[in-house]
């Protein structure tokens, strides 16, 4: 499948690649209400099915899928995170972690039922190669589910735009609509043990100036954060172009 094609470009993650321990605490704080998992399960229940988590990082979400899925494969391009993920899921039946980029999944055609990606790779224009790979490995009727932060939702979106003034949330939404996705806004709550933990997480997500501003604007140890849950189902008949 790969042949002599050039290696795909991998963009380093600005947070988990450098601060995996802090990102672990961030993962634990996110979705304290369970709203994201509830929205995902309502649209594409993975019980008894084969799941792939693209950009799985250190495998935080693999255990949740493994509770009811038939099989779970985590895909991650960064070798240190692959090793952390493998240690996390060691002993879990039907769970595997493989090192690969989203643009070149080490999976057979039409071999999985759900391709899931959460705040990883699929950020809008430019992710077309990954979309095509997801479509390739999905069985007819299978689902590609992309969960990402909603850059239009305050206050988190305001801080994102402050650090990335060229970031255009409406343009991102138009991109995914053009590529056949249904998008649902889901609000959940990040809940931390204390203010120090909150400050630590904001510090790996934003520039120092914006992180300080964000900390001032959050009272207590919790904040509401908006996401987009984007769903596309592979047709049962002919392939759809990506």
From TrEMBL:
<dbReference type="GO" id="GO:0008757">
    <property type="term" value="F:S-adenosylmethionine-dependent methyltransferase activity"/>
</dbReference>
<dbReference type="GO" id="GO:0032259">
    <property type="term" value="P:methylation"/>
</dbReference>
<comment type="similarity">
    <text>Belongs to the methyltransferase superfamily.</text>
</comment>
<dbReference type="InterPro" id="IPR013216">
    <property type="entry name" value="Methyltransf_11"/>
</dbReference>
<feature type="domain" description="Methyltransferase type 11">
    <location>
        <begin position="52"/>
        <end position="146"/>
    </location>
</feature>
<protein>
    <submittedName>
        <fullName>SAM-dependent methyltransferase</fullName>
    </submittedName>
</protein>
<keyword id="KW-0808">Transferase</keyword>
<dbReference type="InterPro" id="IPR051052">
    <property type="entry name" value="Diverse_substrate_MTase"/>
</dbReference>
<dbReference type="InterPro" id="IPR029063">
    <property type="entry name" value="SAM-dependent_MTases_sf"/>
</dbReference>
<keyword id="KW-0489">Methyltransferase</keyword>
<dbReference type="Pfam" id="PF08241">
    <property type="entry name" value="Methyltransf_11"/>
</dbReference>
